[in-house]
Design goal:
The chain has helices at residues 15-32, 37-44, 91-104, 136-149, 163-171, 183-186, 189-192, 223-232; strands at 75-81, 108-111, 154-156, 195-197, 201-204, 207-210, 235-238, 244-253, 256-266, 287-294, 297-304, 311-313, 316-318. The chain is α/β, with parallel strands linked by helices. Bound molecules: fe (ii) ion (2 copies).
């Protein structure tokens, strides 16, 4: 008698089962589309190639560094900056922000991913002249200097910064044993006093900070972060979409208010003219965020940056106009 193929038991169907089904379906579709086995495996091994809508969110592995506040009466100020994409950052704006931060003196300054673009080691540059440009060292040094000028205290992992690991893994896996090529070491985070968060960061009570590339992307600012918030069951602040915006979702039943979940996307600090891959059009906004934490009370202000590079914080204009 022919043996029955094992199938997933729907009574004990788990998140891991859903993830594996998605991988299997993706592989089958790649083969159906004409990819050879080895090409299909190669694409399957690259998480960046997955369409956002087929893969369920990653397991909710929150940072093992819990949020701690020594003095609950103190108003803590956290500045969140996103998507600098060095060497494509808007230098005028980053200098304005650096000067603002010297006056504002936040308790923490967090970059929420894509600090460096790593364009020369991207899979998109493979087989193009860009892959031969000798700028990796100077881009890294420029990014290290900028993180220092901005007084960054925490960085969060992201798709662009994963490129270092990805290319080593693909081309020369034995180099993974070299500690100096680990992203946090390569970026001199020890010397800069920066804490690197590989997992979602417990940034404030009830809030996590993530880059935003592990959950589906929506086309309007705030909606991707809200989607992530609903998946995590926590308020989420994120980057990655290069959009600035916020949204919220309230659970309520029988006239009783339940949970209110907030999602905030921080925007980006990139020089738009240098983002050639957008073909000149993209729904992006330049901005950063300030989070005020007083005990369990958290307020997030989105600070939009004008085209001339200036911005307003608490009623005061900061930055030199271009
Ligand atoms: Fe980005
Ligand atoms: Fe990103």
């Amino acid at each position: 008698m022919a043996r029955k193929r094992p199938v997933i038991d729907l009574d004990t169907y788990s998140a891991l089962d859903a993830y594996c089904i998605a991988l299997n379906e993706y592989y089958k579709s790649l083969r159906k589309a004409g990819f050879s086995e080895s090409h299909a495996f190669w694409i399957l091994g690259d998480r960046e190639s997955f369409p956002d809508w087929i893969i369920p969110g990653l397991p909710n592995r929150i940072d093992n560094i819990p949020y701690e506040d020594d003095d609950e009466d103190y108003m803590k100020k956290i500045v969140i900056l996103s998507d600098l994409q060095v060497p494509f950052e808007d230098v005028h704006v980053t200098q304005n922000i650096a000067r603002f931060l010297q006056k504002f003196k936040p308790d923490q300054t967090v970059t929420i991913g894509d600090e460096i673009d790593f364009q020369t080691i991207s899979k998109w540059s493979e087989g193009t002249p860009q892959a031969y440009e000798q700028t990796l060292g100077s881009d890294r040094d420029r990014c290290v200097d900028l993180l220092w000028e901005l007084g960054v205290t925490d960085c969060i992992r992201s798709n662009h910064t994963d490129r270092l690991y990805n290319i080593i893994m693909k081309k020369i896996p034995s180099f993974l044993s070299l500690p100096e090529l680990r992203f946090e070491k390569f970026m001199k985070f020890d010397e800069l006093g920066i804490t690197f968060h590989k997992n979602p960061m417990n940034i404030a009570p009830g809030w996590i900070a993530v880059h935003g590339d592990h959950t589906p992307i929506k086309n309007l600012g705030g909606l991707s972060a809200l989607e992530a918030a609903r998946r995590h069951g926590k308020n989420v602040i994120s980057g990655h979409t290069h959009r600035a915006g916020r949204s919220a979702f309230t659970e309520a039943s029988g006239g009783r208010l339940g949970r209110v979940l907030h999602g905030v996307e921080v925007g980006n600090l990139m020089d738009f003219k240098q983002a050639g891959y957008t073909k000149g059009s993209a729904n992006w906004q330049m901005a950063f965020a300030i989070m005020y934490v007083h005990g369990s009370n958290v307020q997030v202000d989105l600070i939009n940056i004008e085209k001339n590079g200036t911005f307003i914080v608490q009623g005061k204009v900061y930055g030199r106009p271009r």
